[in-house]
Write a structure and sequence with these properties.
This protein has about 80 residues and is mainly α. It has 1 helix and no strands. The termini are far apart.
């Protein structure tokens, strides 16, 4: 068998560990970016939901107000 010099083996291990470290760094950065994006989406959806709820409440109030101002017409017996 061919003997691999110790220096070459150390360089290979160092390179492999450096590669793994860089890969883990990229994964961490991507994970953080995804979490940030999801948080922004959640805030945006919450604002939309609040706006919809406010719109519904406004419609219901307008409907109730309309019912109060509506004249009650009773049929006249002939």
């Amino acid at each position: 068998m061919n003997e691999v010099p110790v220096d070459l083996m150390q360089y290979a291990l160092g390179g492999a560990s450096l590669f793994i470290l860089i890969a883990v760094g990229f994964v961490a950065i991507a994970w953080k970016g995804l979490a940030k994006r999801d948080a922004k989406k959640e805030v945006k959806n919450k604002k939309k939901q609040e706006k919809r709820q406010q719109k519904k409440e406004t419609k219901l109030e307008a409907k109730a107000q309309k019912q109060q101002t509506k004249k009650v017409v009773k049929p006249v017996a002939k």
